[in-house]
Amino acid sequence: MTETTPSGRADSATLALLAHVGLFAGCTRHELSVIAHATYEADIAAGTVICREGEEGNNFFVIVEGVASVSIAGAVVDRLSAGEFFGEMSLLDGQPRSATVTADSPLIVVVLPRENFEQVILKAPHVALSMLREMATRIRSADTRPIH
Questions:
Q1: CB under 8 Å to 125, separation ≥6 — which residues?
Q2: What is 28-71 written as a DSSP string?
Q3: Does residue 147 form part of some domain?
Q4: Which residues form the domain of 103?
Q5: Structural domains in the chain (count)
Q6: Would 66 be classed as within a structural domain?
């Protein structure tokens, strides 16, 4: 993964991308700016395992460009593309990753490291509430999916 350091990027493209991410849907422009300043952009080669089920997770990822597969116990359960995200659970609770995410194509992602996330919450506490609401929606949705 080729990464840049947290850039203080709060350009309109980054703010627009973050605004369309479900976890941040309820955030104000100021809150989105706080988040953007805590992120960095990374290029990831196709075939790269970005996070592995059972391993420690310290980063939250938003896909800017490309496609990734999500697998649990070796079975692909989802595909993610531009505007979608992963890594939010480990970011919040510090527990091991619940799935493996692999780049199916070259990816450009925005990365929010846990240590920066904690600073975001201190500067813009409403971000945590917005994230928790979206996570509750995801959990409810997962609970109603049929088991195959």
A1: none
A2: -HHHHHHHHHT-EEEEE-TT-EEE-TTS---EEEEEEES-EEEE
A3: no
A4: 2-142
A5: 1
A6: yes
Angle at 123 between CA 118 and CA 126, to 5 degrees: 90
CATH code of 74's domain = 2.60.120.10
Cα(102)–Cα(79) distance, integer angstroms: 10
Exposure b/e, 35-50, CB count within 10 A at least 16 = b: bbbbbbbbbbeeeeeb
Any domain includes 148:
no
- Please name the amino acid found at residue 96: P
The DSSP 8-state label assigned to residue 127 in this structure reads H
pLDDT in tens, the chain (148 residues): 554 444 444 677 888 888 888 777 778 888 889 989 999 999 999 999 999 999 998 899 989 899 999 999 999 999 999 988 899 888 778 889 999 999 999 999 999 998 898 888 888 888 878 777 777 777 777 666 565 4
111 DSSP assignment: E
Contact, 68 vs 33, CB < 8 A? no
Q: With the C-alpha atoms ordered 94, 50, 128, 116, is the resulting torsion angle positive or negative?
A: positive
Model confidence pTM above 0.85: no
